[in-house]
Amino acid sequence: MPDRPVFCFTGDAGFWYHIGDVETAARWGINTVTLVNNNSSGNQSKRGFDRVYGGEQTDEARKLWQFTDVNFARIAEEMGAVGIRVEKPGEVAGAIQQAFEEAKTRPVILDVTSDLNALAPLAVS
Q1: What is the pTM of this model?
Q2: Which end of the chain is more exposed for a tag (fewer CB within 10 A), N or C?
Q3: Residue ranges per structural domain of the chain
Q4: Tens-of-pLDDT digits for all 125 residues of the chain?
Q5: What is the CATH number of domain 6-42+68-113?
């Protein structure tokens, strides 16, 4: 194990691909802190869907990139990791500090809820 925690920042869409690794990390006592930007979506795809649907997406189209609201902190706890849920911006700094304290013995999932409609700036148009 590294002598200090590894930090990972991911979106919820990406986290879904690797959620099983949380159980493995907990079983092996791997000291990681994973901050999940949980906006219940893969909203980086929103602009592409807007273009395809002429700016007026159907409910069916939105199902392709919007997810059910999930509490990843609760899932992490069920897998043997530490789960911390953050629902207010003012809680982020304290939660990160807590996460690094907790990560000395097992992995931590920091589930930070965010706004589905907050889009990152375009890097390529």
Answers
A1: 0.87
A2: C
A3: 6-42+68-113
A4: 568 889 999 999 999 999 999 999 999 999 999 999 999 998 877 788 788 888 788 888 888 888 899 999 999 999 999 999 999 999 999 999 999 999 998 999 999 999 988 877 777 76
A5: 3.40.50.970
